[in-house]
Write a structure and sequence with these properties.
CATH superfamily of the largest domain: Peptidase M41
Number of strands: 8
Structural class: alpha/beta
Shape: elongated
Distance between the termini: 72 Å
Strand order of the largest sheet: 2-3-4-1-5
CATH architecture of the largest domain: Up-down Bundle
CATH class of the largest domain: Mainly Alpha
Largest sheet: 5 strands, parallel
Radius of gyration: 29 Å
Number of domains: 3
Length: 488
């Protein structure tokens, strides 16, 4: 049995209104929790105990659910601090869970102590990162029974926890519980989920939220976000959780303190390290750098800029995945994602490395095979816009074409169309490469080789200085699509 007094939940100095960045819908939900706590206090002061009891029976607490690093603990700390300002005492629920095996008696004693504390003050009971109080859903128990021959029996500890939750409305002052967990909602005991009727699900931040998170932590560490290309960083970290963004900024700050200045290159390196691991042990010769530069910039980035896509990054630094360089571009308002223009523009940029190699005898031969394969994939996506029977089925690694679900005659027809699209893309790529050969050479040999990594703003600035006009070949691309018979 527990023999210690209730401990206070310790939270860092964060504010819901000043330090919770991104996730606007979650922030609104957290603000509503704070309003709810205020209202429970108001009912207590007005001695409307029956009304308060009914409310607590309908919502005794919240579940903050999501993967590690999504911001659950940060949000909990924000709520704890707001609650303290409103007279709540934050109870650390880990007092109850400090034993390896928690029994019903432990739970009963813990809540008895909470009831005593609630004689004098409202309580916010915080459990950070727990699973044992959430139980298992009937679906999971049934699966365990079928697989292991167990999982059907009632859990006495969980039963006692549910019983104590039902008694919270009888406390002299309101008591509210928040549990954070990496458990999925569908795996949680249905009776627990019903009592914790507010479920806040934390996922990966959107592009807009990632930008806000980058800006927040840069300012927190004393940097001016205006000096960093946050748009590029946000694009490169698509799908990355908020906690990892914090780590990337923190490690970049450490590197900046050594090198004397925080740069886009430092931050891109940290993102690449996080996504791909430490860089491979390859020391590129000057010729290797030049060939890689022509492949990545002349073969992809330049073409993307000229057909209406937005260049994001070009680098000639070796990466942990074995590549000697990378380039990224993204859709734009003129060339939106999943449109015929996007798939064709993507095919053009992918065929660009072949164009550079053929027309200028530059670029890396090793990169052509992957580019050709990706170009074929984009061509297939384009063809699928008017022939949906050959699109990839969700969850499959192949297509109807590659999995042999079409007749040989139909496969030949599709393959011929893909080749036709790729040839059209290659012809336009060759034309662009020849037209901008001088500008291409200047960019690669005077800028990219020297900087090794260039981000969106730096790329566009240099291109404008060289007189390269954005979307210069958008109209020819549009006309080529029409000639191929695709609506644009």
């Amino acid at each position: 049995m527990i023999k210690t007094e209730l401990g206070e939940f310790e939270s860092s100095d964060v504010s819901l209104y000043n330090d919770f960045i991104g996730f606007p819908s979650i922030q609104e939900e957290l603000r509503d929790i704070v309003k709810y706590l205020e209202y429970l206090n108001k009912l207590t002061q007005e001695k409307k105990h029956d009304h308060r009891k009914m409310l607590i029976q309908s919502e005794c607490g919240s579940l903050f659910l999501g993967k590690t690093g999504t911001g659950k603990t940060h949000s909990l700390q924000c709520i704890v601090n707001e609650a303290k300002e409103r007279g709540y005492y934050p109870v650390d629920g880990s007092t109850m869970l400090k034993k390896e095996s928690v029994n019903p008696g432990d739970i009963g004693e813990f809540f008895d102590k909470c009831k005593e504390k609630a004689e004098e003050t409202p309580l916010l009971i915080a459990y950070d990162d727990v699973k044992q109080l959430l139980g298992l859903s009937s679906r999971v128990r049934e699966r365990m029974r079928e697989t292991f021959g167990r999982g059907d029996g009632e859990n006495p500890t969980l039963e006692e926890f549910r019983r104590q939750l039902d008694k919270l409305g009888d406390f002299n002052h309101p008591a509210y519980i928040i549990i954070t967990s990496t458990e999925r909602r569908r795996n949680i005991d249905e009776q627990i989920a019903r009592r914790f009727s507010r479920h806040v699900i934390f996922g990966s931040p959107s592009d807009e939220s990632r930008r806000a998170i980058f800006e927040y932590y840069l300012r927190k560490l004393g940097y001016n976000p205006d000096n960093i290309d946050i748009i590029t960083l946000s694009y490169l970290t698509n799908g990355v959780v908020a906690g990892k963004v914090k780590e990337i900024v923190s490690r970049s700050s450490y590197k900046a303190s050594i090198e004397g200045k925080l740069t886009n290159q430092i931050m891109v390196k940290e993102i690449t390290r996080f996504l791909h691991g430490p860089p491979v042990d390859i020391d590129l010769t000057e010729d290797d750098k030049i060939q890689t530069g022509y492949h990545e910039f002349g073969g992809h980035t330049l073409l993307a800029y000229l057909v209406g896509l937005e260049p994001i990054l070009v680098t000639i630094e070796p990466s942990a995945d074995g590549t000697l360089g990378k380039s990224f571009h993204r859709p734009s308002e003129r060339v939106p994602l999943s449109s015929s223009k996007y798939f064709f523009a993507n095919a053009i940029t992918l065929m660009g490395s072949t164009a550079v190699y053929n027309e200028l005898n530059k670029g890396r031969e090793e990169g052509r095979l992957n580019d050709l394969f990706s170009a074929a994939r984009s061509a297939l996506d384009l063809y699928a816009l008017k022939n949906p029977t050959i699109t990839m089925r969700v969850g499959w690694r192949g297509t109807y074409l590659t999995r042999g679900l079409l007749s040989e005659e139909n496969k030949k027809e599709v393959e011929a169309e893909i080749e036709k699209i790729k040839n059209s893309a290659l012809n336009l790529a060759k034309h662009i490469v020849k037209h901008y050969q001088n500008e291409l050479e200047i960019f690669v040999e005077k800028h990219l080789i020297r900087n090794e990594t260039m981000v969106r703003g730096e790329i566009i600035t240099v291109l404008k200085e060289l007189g390269v006009e954005s979307e210069k070949f958008y109209k020819p691309m549009y006309e080529a699509l029409n000639d191929l018979g695709y609506l644009v």
